[in-house]
Input
Amino acid sequence: MGVIDGLVAKSRRKSPWLFRLNSGGCNGCDIEFSACLSPRYDVEQTGALLVGSARHADILCVTGPVTQGARTALETIFAQIGEPKAVVAVGNCPATGDVFAGSPVIVGPLDRVIPVDIYIPGCPPRPNDIIEGIAKAVATLPAKGIHARKGAKKGGPAAK
Amino acid sequence: MNTGKVLLGLLVFPGLLYALPAAWLMLWIERKARARMQGRIGPPFFQPFFDFVKLMAKRTVPLPLFNAVLAAGLPILAGSSLLVALSLLPVLSGSGGFVGDLILLVALLEVPALAAVLAGFASRSIFGQLGGAREAVLSIVSSVPFLTAAFALAMSAHSLRLADIATRPIAAARWPAVLALVLCLPMKLRTNPFSLVNAEQEIYSGPLTEYGGSKLALWDLAHGMEWVAQTGLIACLALPLRSGRAVQDIVLMIAGSFFLVVLLALTASGTARLKIKQAGRFYWSWGLAFSLLALVLAVFPR
Output
């Protein structure tokens, strides 16, 4: 099984599919995020792909400070992504609330709503930083997969 | 037909052993060519393979309204019918076949479209239903010129046997028929001017919006095999790539398939998505014009 586990871990590193969600921000980070897919930065050469459906995705990239209206959508979309998955908070807003902090309509920062793996600071962050953040999130995926499987078979003979 | 030849066709060439790597290679060429045309570097060579393995090992969140048997059965149905369709292709001269296998081949090639329609509606997602409805409309629209062109080839060869169509001389009707079949390819493979079914940025992924994990991996594989089967059909039956020697025939068929893949990828990256009305009109005018010309030339040879 060692070979197959190794292949699966390698595939998870090589093929991160991204899903982008704006939880009520100013759209600045989304523009920088789109630049990652452009010819200048071309994140596809690492195997990454921007997908339209959350059920296809591995990495959820959230921008914005999480407004009350976006909370349910965020939780639903997070629940629709199959394990192993990672969450990347793109920009200052999901990390701290940034200029929206203290607003009565903000339920963020993001880690009050869903668990966050990687924070990318910046308002907005540069595409280079976003790509680095995605690469760090990708590196967490193989280990998550193994934990998820062991957790599922807890008590069974395969758990050792 | 003996069992050994059937199994050889199904499992080795042009079946599983060829179709599986060719499917991944074609999916990669399509993505790579599109990236190069946009001035990007594009995905690494093994990308479709890694995508497949990753998706197979990924867990899916079950949907209460989505029947699990249908969800898994439809991509398997699509892939296996394509595999049988591929095994019918008479790449090697004297590779059996039977009278009327053209009809079976055409029917099998329509199964993935039907499965995609069912998948879209079975997923109970509004985007899946939109994609399914578009697939239904467009597969009917593009089937008319496709079937007419295939029938014109059969008329010219005076036979419904694939082996006869591939080997007998088809004089005047060949090139209009080839043109009509090639025009139908982007619709059948859902690439760019006619990518209405899985229109990203518009209806997410169409029929596959609610799919995830291993079932999505099977759909991707079926889609890759669709590339192999549809381009293989044209390279094997319609294009005059016959030498009479087995090895040369195989090489010519593979080369013809990959030429069509590159052609399609370049077309896809150079064009934008049409509206469904425009797509329909295109097939009813240009597609039908070339296929009817082929039919006329087949019925009244000089």
About this structure: Chain A touches chain B through 29 residues (CB under 8 Å). The longest strand of chain A covers residues 17-22. The helical segments of chain A are 2-14, 28-36, 68-80, 92-96, 127-152.
